[in-house]
From TrEMBL:
<dbReference type="Pfam" id="PF09084">
    <property type="entry name" value="NMT1"/>
</dbReference>
<feature type="domain" description="SsuA/THI5-like">
    <location>
        <begin position="128"/>
        <end position="267"/>
    </location>
</feature>
<keyword id="KW-0732">Signal</keyword>
<feature type="signal peptide">
    <location>
        <begin position="1"/>
        <end position="25"/>
    </location>
</feature>
<dbReference type="InterPro" id="IPR015168">
    <property type="entry name" value="SsuA/THI5"/>
</dbReference>
<protein>
    <submittedName>
        <fullName>ABC transporter substrate-binding protein</fullName>
    </submittedName>
</protein>
Length: 469
């Protein structure tokens, strides 16, 4: 009798152990939503996926000892459908801009659930990245000339917020002084080409992409608004609480992706281009040194403010009727732990506002570049590295030499003297001072002001090159 009881006990224990082991070996899904063409999300999606960075950081001990990971990637062209998939429980992590992220949190709350904002991926504390463009042959050169015009924008996007702030800065009523219509980038491009709209406001990278493609010209950059904007990563809060080690693994992979593109921006700009169709020349505008936006994984006060601005603007638009506590929505514990695990100092980086640094020698003089106000760059076809120059004069001189050698020029960049952002040289304006020194500007008005204040003249790209002998 006692033997039978013992046998039954052993059988029961073995069965329970088998069930427990099976549970331990159960697959753990990690479903991540990306926005590949929104290239500022690259370090939180595309690069992690393409370089297979996530598996190296996934936990393999403790409760994860026998875990099998099912990594799922889904790509989206905007934040709204990505949010729908997260709320439906088909995605665990996603990347998007500040405005769509607020909508994400609202959508979660309406179902009795929560999402959390994990980290910033890339942004600008001054607002650069969003922009307003006009058809390339338009007579409009500034936002002041758009009164009474038709402007399209992806509704409820971070670019929509920029447009409303820019209009308010002019003292205009957005309902009567301009006609704002909803258009996604894939619709606005053809509309600009056919002059069916007077202007279009958009987020990364479309203001630059349309300009680079030659059918639009940027007349307003978000940096003029001085209002922060960014893209970041979110997670389903319950998933993060259940698998905090997986969230930290994802963020470790994000950190590595950021470090890789910082070290070799040309190489990874080409990779992003190959996977998205966004030209590498445009990708480099953002991710290269001194780029339009700064890759920054820390929750700077400006980015928290941007999230609060998104909450307030979306309420104004009647899009959100749910109260959001930004301080609860933003949860920086995971990124701080990821920094520590990567032997990085989060507090130190939190205080760092510098753009990705340019460490280079002037390609013409071979002297180290130590002043960055007038930096210019040339990307030559067939060369793996972008050439850098301390001044437009040096760049234009070398450009002539390269052209004489029959080299094909992919793109020329300048740093805007006022806005401190990288711009496409062929669409920039150039102002001299009384000594003939050349300075680059995105906006003709800024070039005019500089020339007037410094006793110089204003030139377009072609005529500015003629100043250099």
């Amino acid at each position: 009798m006692q033997l039978n009881k013992l046998a039954k006990s052993i059988i029961l224990s073995t069965t329970l152990l088998s069930i427990f082991s099976a549970a331990q070996a159960e697959d753990i899904r990690i479903a991540i939503g990306t926005q590949d063409t929104t290239i500022n999300c690259a370090t939180g999606g595309l690069l992690i996926r393409e370089l297979n960075l996530l598996p190296k950081y996934l936990p393999k001990t403790g409760k994860y000892k026998d875990a099998k990971y099912d990594i799922v990637w889904k790509n989206f062209t905007s934040g709204a459908p990505l949010t729908s998939e997260m709320v439906a429980g088909r995605l665990d992590i996603g990347a998007m801009a500040d405005f769509p992220a607020v909508n994400n949190n609202v959508a979660f709350k309406k179902t009795g659930k929560e999402s959390i904002f994990l980290t910033v991926l890339s942004g600008s504390t001054t607002g650069s990245g969003n922009g307003i463009v006009v058809p390339v042959d338009s007579d409009v050169t500034s936002i002041q000339e758009l009164k009474g015009k038709t402007i399209s924008v992806p509704f409820a996007s971070t670019a929509h917020g920029l447009l409303l702030r820019a209009i308010a800065a002019q003292g205009w009523d957005p309902k009567t002084d301009v006609k704002i219509i909803a258009q996604a980038p894939e619709v606005s491009g053809p509309a600009l080409k056919s002059n069916k709209i007077d202007a279009h406001a958009d987020f990364v990278p479309f203001a630059e992409l349309f300009s680079y493609q030659g059918f639009a010209r940027k007349i307003y950059d978000g940096a003029q608004a001085k209002t922060p904007t960014f893209h970041g990563s979110l997670a389903n809060k319950s998933y993060a609480q259940q698998y905090p080690e997986i969230i930290q693994a994802y963020l470790r992979a994000t950190i590595e992706a950021d470090q890789l593109i910082r070290k070799e921006p040309e190489k990874y700009s080409e990779l992003i281009a190959a996977k998205t169709g966004i030209p590498a020349e445009v990708v480099y505008l953002f991710h290269g040194p001194l780029g339009l936006q700064t890759r920054d994984l820390t929750w700077k006060p400006e980015y928290k403010k941007a999230t609060q601005t998104a909450v307030e603007t979306l309420k104004y638009l009647g899009r959100d009727d749910v109260d959001i506590d930004v301080n609860q929505f933003i949860d920086d514990q995971y990124i701080q732990k990821a920094f520590k695990a990567a032997d990085l100092n989060y507090t130190q980086q939190l205080k760092n506002y510098a753009q990705a640094p340019l460490v280079a020698k002037d390609a013409l003089t071979q002297k180290p570049i130590q002043s960055f106000e007038r930096v210019s760059q040339i990307w030559v076809k067939g060369e793996t590295k972008v050439r850098s120059y301390v001044t437009p004069e040096n760049a234009f001189k070398d450009l002539k030499n390269l052209q004489k050698q029959g080299k094909t020029i992919r793109v020329v960049y300048n740093q805007d003297r006022d806005l401190k952002i990288k711009v496409l040289a062929n669409l920039a304006w150039y102002a001299t001072d009384k000594n003939g020194q050349i300075n680059a500007f995105l906006l003709r008005g800024n070039a005019n002001n500089w020339a007037k204040a410094h006793g110089g003249k204003v030139y377009d790209f072609n005529n500015a090159q003629k100043l250099v002998k």
